[in-house]
């Protein structure tokens, strides 16, 4: 599966859907797309990581930097990390948990939940 990032809008939310491996080679693409979204005036961002099957520390770094950027604009960042069960859970979710940064993010199981105004995050 080739890496790609596609963008859309859902209500007040900009949505970036990420597919493939989020690693040293591909993370600059996501970093640039996040910056482009903010430069276009969107401060409510959902990053859908449902189709990311590998994430290394550079990918985590991009997510942490995106959180910092959005917070500096008094914006909102939500991640979609579906729970596919104990044996087939989200790789990104496991990586964020292992690195101890999962609690920094507002995580949702799907796009409907992530873009709902009264949405509460999944527990860490």
From TrEMBL:
InterPro entries recorded: Anti-sigma_ant, STAS_dom, STAS_dom_sf
One GO molecular-function entry: anti-sigma factor antagonist activity
Gene3D superfamilies: STAS domain
Domain STAS: 15-118
Signal peptide coordinates: none
Superkingdom of source: Bacteria
Family per record: Belongs to the anti-sigma-factor antagonist family.
Protein name (record): Anti-sigma factor antagonist
Organism annotation: Streptomyces misionensis
């Amino acid at each position: 599966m080739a890496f790609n990032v596609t963008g859309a809008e859902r209500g007040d939310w900009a949505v970036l859907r990420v597919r493939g491996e989020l690693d040293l080679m591909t993370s600059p693409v996501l970093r640039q797309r996040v910056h482009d979204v903010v430069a276009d005036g969107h401060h409510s961002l959902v990053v859908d990581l449902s189709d990311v099957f590998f994430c290394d520390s550079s990918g985590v770094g991009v997510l942490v930097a995106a959180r910092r950027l959005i917070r500096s604009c008094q914006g909102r960042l939500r991640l979609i990390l579906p729970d596919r069960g104990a044996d087939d859970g989200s790789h990104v979710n496991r990586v964020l948990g292992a690195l101890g940064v999962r609690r920094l993010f507002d995580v949702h199981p799907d796009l409907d939940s992530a873009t709902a105004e009264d949405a509460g995050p999944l527990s860490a």
